[in-house]
Design goal:
Blueprint: E1 12-15, E2 20-27, E3 30-37, H1 43-49, H2 52-58, E4 66-72, E5 77-83, H3 103-107, E6 111-114, H4 116-121
Antiparallel strand pairs: 1-6, 2-3, 3-5, 4-5
């Protein structure tokens, strides 16, 4: 998925994992994904860009029935309840990740637009 910004926009795309970490749970055919900002100051960027609509588009290949976002600004976090995304759930799915544990890792690849100055100080995974 590509994110388009206006031409005058100086922001650059970085993966969400540079701004936040996540946790995943599941119940039946519902996945529950939490996104927690590494720094409180970065939460407004996440709140602006990691919306219900954006998450539904990001997971569109899994055809979610509904995405609901719950904001938890006091802990710089948000929680997504994604219905109908687990191929029926652990007892019905034939895929390898029937519990949906990998879905938070997939969401953490979501491209987030940030100012170049912020991108320069964000932590990143170092590759050998």
């Amino acid at each position: 998925m590509t994110t388009h910004a206006p031409r005058h926009d100086r922001r650059i795309a970085v993966p969400l994992y540079r701004l936040a970490h996540g946790r995943t749970g599941d119940k039946g055919n519902i996945s529950n994904i939490s996104v927690i900002a590494w720094e409180d100051a970065w939460f407004p960027v996440l709140e602006e860009q990691i919306t219900e609509e954006a998450v539904a588009r990001w997971f569109s290949h899994r055809t979610p029935e509904r995405v609901t976002r719950y904001l938890l600004p006091s802990i710089s976090a948000m929680n997504f309840v994604i219905e109908g995304i687990l191929d029926g759930g652990v007892n019905d799915a034939l895929n390898l990740d029937s519990h949906g544990k990998a879905l938070s890792f997939y969401l953490l690849d979501f491209p987030v637009l940030v100012d170049p100055e912020l991108a320069a100080v964000l932590p990143d995974v170092q590759h050998p």
